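Troubleshooting: if your tokenizer reports a length mismatch, compare your output against this known-good record of 580 residues.
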Amino acid sequence: MLKKFAGAIREYRKPSLLAPVMVSLEVVAECFIPFITSQLINAIEGGNELTVILQYGVGLLLMALLSLGFGILAGYYCSVASCGFAKNLRHDLFYKINEFSFTNIDRFSTSSLVTRLTTDVTNVQNAYMMIIRTAVRCPFMLIFAFVMSIQLGGSLAWIFAGILPVLGFALFFIIWRVMPIFRRAFRRYDRLNESVQENVAGMRVVKSFVREEYECEKFGRASDDVARDFVRAEKILAFNTPVMQLCIYAALLLISYFCAKIVISEYGTTTLELGTLSGMITYSIQILMSMMMISMVFVMITMAVESARRIAEVLSEESTTTNPENPVMEVADGSIDFDDVNFRYSEAAEKNALSDVNLHIRSGETIGIIGGTGSSKTSLVNLISRLYDATEGCVRVGGIDVRQYDLETLRNQVSVVLQKNLLFSGTIKENLRWGDPDASEEEMVHACQVAQADEFIRSFPDGYDTYIEQGGTNVSGGQKQRLCIARALLKKPKILIFDDSTSAVDTHTDALIRNALRKEIPGTTKIIIAQRISSVQEADRIVVMDGGRITDCGTHEELLKSSAIYREVYESQTRAGGEN
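Known-good structure output:
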């Protein structure tokens, strides 16, 4: 795990190394200040010459300036290193997520990935900042102050050695109790974010069903669970302060007591100089404050350990779809073959999503796929572009197993218009250029004409420069689908898949789109998943699916005679049409 996080430092290695160096020099300078101060007090008390006193004064000023300078540099390098580390960590996480297959993404919820990219990275960033500054400063301060206190007070310094085990045991106990609570709290934090995400994304549904109160109660329960765990953890962490204060005051009391015994001996003679006493008290405060800061570092690291584990879990996840050693870099044609294909979404799944699939599609052929909800129509086409890999059997495109292709090459030749259409915030032109970044305006207009989108785009005041809001909320469902079809056409793929992508379009426009596609891209293999018979009845062949299996395959006329499922769907739709 540490190796993965160390890799995120990269170009920030220099400030990451300089920060602890500057902190160490700051501590050295700071530890000399009480020593010089004690010598100065002793010199004044002893009636030394002014030149001697001035020497100590100049030394004191020099150490103070050095401490200030090194402290400023330490703070600067620490900020640069920690912020850069967090930036690289987010970069690595985001790129890793983008490499994931759908199988990998199914393992993590969207809300959990968002939490890991934000809250968890911030926790690790804060811990990293503490490690390269405070976690270096405190042990150095403790050691140097302890050594200097021995120089000044001899055996009195061993008081601190008796205090440290008590504090160490207390810190260990606190961390041991708190870690499981933080682990549970972060899981509940994921559920809280999931509740927010669902509510915001489905706000129209929530309001249309007047479920605001229910959603508020659900969010309140999730929020209360998170708060309860953090309060429980903070209650335990709160013991850190009183234990620390007890150690500090115990040490100060013991030092004051023994110093008083030495200063005023039973014979009334002074055996400990005032400057030495002052220096010992200052060193005791430095040592005990270092101990307090160490406890704070442990608290911060305790919180960050669970965040680091969650981040490492994503970074360690290997994509289930990777390029072979010598990938095929060209797709010969748009032919598709499914040979004895079985597929399940996870090893833990009780049954296959697809079973015994055998289907052979010629290049340039138009295939319709129809079936009831849950018949695995989308699962079937997802195997073509390796969004998932077949569990058993083989899927071939252009006569070659899809697992032998370079992923980018394969997916550039398989264009999918998804069932859930998604447009990104930006202009219509920017959205269309997702299909081809170098597409000219003429190519974009032509693609939109084929998708029957050009007319409504030109009706907007800004035309193709019209700004699309996040999620495409300022265009209708049918307009969104047509824009997505135009975007897919700009890729000029060998295989074009429509996953129920004209469901929000009226039947007349649907027919216009199909006619345009037949004329404009006759050599492209087209797979049309639809609920309406009218969308697929002119296809070269129609595949009927039920329960993850292909039950029938043929033309519209053949299936009306041979397929009970197809005939039933056709009759129900035409009867409804006749009544309307």
